[in-house]
TrEMBL record:
A cellular component term, taken from the record's GO annotations: extracellular space
InterPro entries tied to this protein: C-type_lectin-like/link_sf, CTDL_fold, CUB_dom, Link_dom, Sperma_CUB_dom_sf, Spermadhesin-Link_domain
Gene3D superfamilies (UniProt xref): Mannose-Binding Protein A, subunit A, Spermadhesin, CUB domain
Signal sequence region: 1-19
Keywords: Cell adhesion, Disulfide bond, Hydrolase, Signal
The protein's name: Tumor necrosis factor-inducible gene 6 protein
GO annotation (BP), single: cell adhesion
Organism: Channa argus
Length: 261
């Protein structure tokens, strides 16, 4: 059963080699290209499906962008942008871009899963924004080991930053995060500034933790070969920032004698 599923997946990967493939032992997918088309997905700080149309517009505007149009979303999708969460886009339309067919998402179809123009603009969804000039921070990291720092570290980070780091190591490896310094504006529930860690290739699934304040988070170990870190700072108050080191290790060693320090 497992083998069949794998072969099916492999067949799919070969068919969709452009958008979704294993290259140099690294699984490439949508988020890899997330910023390439200037389109990106956002959800409310309160969680999934919490934004009215008006709030959705405000989220994009806050970051200097605007709601993505259907054509921008489709252009992004064609180079591999895949998100399993319905969001507002231009003119009050709702939908999401699917590259890889799945039964849990997109009803097995690929394309823009289109919920149409919503008559009720008070409905709550996520949002798709467009901003080809978004601030540069974060990136896709494939080294076996690297230090990740908040923008400008060791100087204080700036207000209104949004950075995504997507870590991808070889298939069969896992990722060990070890925090070296941590000082991010403290507030209850970390709603102002925060660092989030996801045990997945995007910031939709695999939420592992949201961190702020000045205590050093404990080490975090991925379950697979990808992880996403998201740093967000709001419009006021910054702090010293953070740095952490990630290290790839062979997953097969983990169950036997791997220990964290
Ligand atoms: C519009 O959607 C909101 C949120 O789902 C709901 O509370 C409200 O009743 C809806 N209004 C109408 C007229 O259907
Ligand atoms: C992990 O270690 C095992 C056993 O030493 C080895 O067979 C395998 O090729 C290694 N995998 C990677 C990705 O290094
Ligand atoms: C785990 O054990 C193997 C064989 O006993 C050894 O080669 C390897 O270096 C060990 N790994 C760690 C992380 O201690």
């Amino acid at each position: 059963m497992r083998v069949l599923a794998f072969l099916w997946a492999l067949g799919f990967l070969l068919n969709e080699a452009q958008a979704w493939s294993i290259k140099n032992g690294i699984f490439h997918n949508s988020i890899w290209l997330e910023r390439a088309a200037g389109v990106y997905h956002r959800e409310s700080r309160k969680g999934k499906y919490q934004l009215t149309y008006r709030e959705a517009k405000a989220v994009c505007k806050y970051e200097g962008g605007s709601l993505a149009t259907y054509d921008q979303l489709e252009a992004a999708r064609q180079i591999g942008f895949h998100v399993c969460a319905a969001g507002w886009f231009d003119k009050g339309r709702v939908g999401y871009p699917i590259v890889k067919p799945g039964t849990n998402c997109g009803f097995g179809r690929v394309g823009i899963i289109d919920y149409g123009y919503r008559l009720n603009k008070s409905e709550k969804w996520d949002v798709y924004c467009y901003n080809p000039n978004a601030k540069e921070c974060g990136g896709v990291l494939t080294n076996q080991q690297k230090i990740i720092q908040s923008p400008g570290f060791p100087a204080e980070y700036q207000d209104e930053q949004i950075c995504y780091w997507h870590i991808r190591v070889r298939l069969g490896e896992r990722i060990h995060l070890h925090f070296l310094d941590f000082d991010v504006e403290d507030d209850t529930d970390c709603l102002a500034d925060y660092l989030e860690v996801y045990d997945s290739y995007d910031d939709v699934s695999g939420f592992t933790g949201r961190f702020c304040g000045d205590y050093l988070p404990e080490d975090i170990i991925s379950t697979g070969n990808v992880m996403t870190l998201k740093f967000l700072s709001d419009a006021s108050v910054s702090a010293g920032g953070f740095q952490l080191q990630y290290t790839a290790f062979n997953a097969s060693l983990f169950s036997h004698n791997y220990t964290t320090n």
